[in-house]
Amino acid sequence: MLELTRRREASKAMLWLTPVFAVILTIVAGGLLFALLGKDPVEAVRLIFVQPFLDPFSRTELLVKGTPLVLIAIGLSLGFRAGVWNIGAEGQFIMGALVGGAVALAFYEIPGVWLLPLMCFAGMAGGAAWAMIPAILRIRFNANEILVSLMLVYVAELLLSALVSGPLRDPDGFNFPESRMFHDSATLPILISGSRAHIGAAVALGAVIAAYVLLERHLFGFRIKLFGQAPRAARFAGFSEAGLVAACLGLGGALAGLAGVFEASGPVGQLVPALPQGYGFTAIIVAFLGRLNPLGVLLAGAVMALTYIGGETAQISMNLPAAAINVFQGMLLFFLLGIDVLVNYRLRWRRAA
Amino acid sequence: MTFWRKALGAAAGAALAALGVAAQAQEPLKIGFVYVGPTGDFGWTHEHDLARQAVEKHFGDKVETTFVENVAEGPDAERVIRQMAQSGQKLIFTTSFGFMNPTLKVAKQFPDVKFEHATGFKRDVNVSTYSARFYEGRHVIGLIAGKMTKSNVIGYIASFPIPEVVRGINSAYLAAKSVNPNVQFRVVWVNTWFDPGKEADAAKALIEQGADVIMQHTDSAAPITIAEEKGVLAFGQASDMTKFGPKAHLTAIMDNWAPYYIARTQAVLDGTWESKDTWDGIAPGMVAFAPYNPALPKEVVALAEYARLGISLGKIHPFTGPINKQDGTPWLAAGETAPDGDLLGMNFYVEGIEGVLPK
């Protein structure tokens, strides 16, 4: 019978090599899957991992796809480090887009340079407020934040769908459930002309640096790490758990909300029911793939964005089914978690007694 | 199933491409299709993909097609459409309403590529729109429903309260009412185009409320399966869904995009393509029907066929006055037929339908 025994100390090198191995294993297993589907595996993997870098437009699209992933994952990784499990970033993303988008639509007639900053602020407030619900319920009633934050995703989705079918609907849109296109001054400035890469990419990079400084150089970062590793010690030291839970969820919510506003006012340019595309959930993979470290998250976000863009390229040029690409992405998390188990535990064969 | 169809398609495509190189040096016209669902949905996307295959068959080595399935109507649509244009497709069909703004954005950047957007209302010099007059089909199945119901309650699973869907409800109701004055409609809004779970729940709820005929304006075959299980009647959507409920399935309004896709491809090949709006119905074959269920009484089939022919010849219009709106205000005077403008913006129930139209 197979048995897992905990290793006394996991290898430091393996901690960082795990994601690399996971990517390699995914490529091998994915290649096998593509071969079974009758597609050239080498060409498919090349299209997914290399082609996006060769094409100038795809390069900019990596930024478009990576921005929300990194922004959300940075916020989540802070919480995960402290043992605050915010699984509902998708809902906070939607609320950010909704509140920020509502501001854009409310000032449709009065454009101005102040509009975008106001939208961003509103979006962050919206995302943070949504995250405050699980925070308060956990602090006050010890409710499980995993469950509460996850359930609120569906509430947010329905709210978005209700509002774009009602008050926020395009008055000239034949009752179709979507808002009108945002005014120019409510649309994000583009970083690289002719592309959709927007200013949000720079903000995401800023968030990575800020999170790094926060974790390594600031007392708050120390508190996060302490609560994650030794909650009792943290309590003895007099750090407030309630404050930490609220701060982690609030920060995560604000960053997810900001990602939502960026998405609505950047690549989409309006509020539509299909705005949320699972970034909030994919960001959980990104956070763990990046080992909950800001720089790691940046790299992991890039890899994840690559599989999306490359996956579409493979669909167009090789007619690979969409489901095969989804399986490919799922394998990434599967292998990461699998190797993690082996790094932390020893596998032993024991005869049944 | 999907895999084999695709594998075969790819093999055939490769063979055709190889032949093309050998036969003539002229580059084939590359045509791209962007689908909102999976090609194996047995409904909306399935029919678009059948039409794509018909284009390939009709033009042989003169064209080369590709498609991307499961493209969400959100931020990713623009990239996919753009990648299509960038990878050399000269004619691109974007087959869902939510692709409207992304299609227009990409079209501006690729003036030499022709775009065809299904069911939208915004056009450009290189963007055409097309849709089908499904309400003509709804008239025919409305007649059958009115004749076949015993409880006089017809259940209707509706997606979104947009004119397209409202038009279908009104058309079916007026037709059913014309052959059965006691008929009542119960409408459930599911706020989705494709969600087998929700559609099945809606079907169950309607049957519990006494409906013995189910109509749907959503894309999955789940309601047919439920109808079969509960022993009530139903109509397929977009495709022939007989195999999901051989007893329940009376017929289906089928979307037949092939003639349009072939015509538009021909226009690009001939250099005569220009931007226009197409709204075709039963007459040119864009709206067709699945075979009638053999259990349908002869006189019901005759009634349906009479209406189909009448609409096809232009003798019957599903919206012919006198018709009042739900609140009793007059809409069409006796003998007057609805102008297209009214139909395109339809946001009211006709008199007799109960319930409030969500606004």
Structural summary, described in words:
The complex is a heterodimer of chains A (353) and B (359). Chain A is an all-alpha fold and 353 residues long. Chain A is built from 14 helices and two strands, in the order E-H-H-H-H-H-H-H-H-H-H-H-H-H-H-E. A two-stranded antiparallel sheet of chain A has the order 1-2. In chain A, helix 6 (115-141) packs antiparallel against helix 11 (241-268). The radius of gyration of chain A is 22 Å and the shape is globular. Chain B is an alpha/beta fold and 359 residues long. Chain B has helices at 2-23, 44-59, 75-86, 100-109, 134-148, 163-179, 196-208, 222-230, 258-270, 298-312, 340-344; strands spanning 29-34, 63-68, 91-94, 114-118, 127-132, 153-158, 184-189, 213-216, 233-238, 249-255, 277-280, 287-289, 323-324, 330-332. Chain B has a six-stranded parallel beta sheet with strand order 2-1-3-4-5-11, sandwiched between helices. In chain B, strands 7-6-8-9-10-12 form a six-stranded mixed beta sheet, with helices on both faces. In chain B, strand 3, helix 4 and strand 4 form a beta-alpha-beta unit. In chain B, 50% of the residues are buried. Chain A binds chain B through residues 37-38, 55, 57-58, 61, 64, 161, 165-166, 174-178, 181, 194, 196, 263, 267-270, 272-277, 308-309, 312-313, 315-317, 319, 321-323, and chain B through 2-3, 6-7, 9-10, 32, 38, 66-70, 72-76, 78-80, 82-84, 86-87, 97-98, 101, 109, 121, 160-163, 166, 191, 344-345, 347, 358-359.
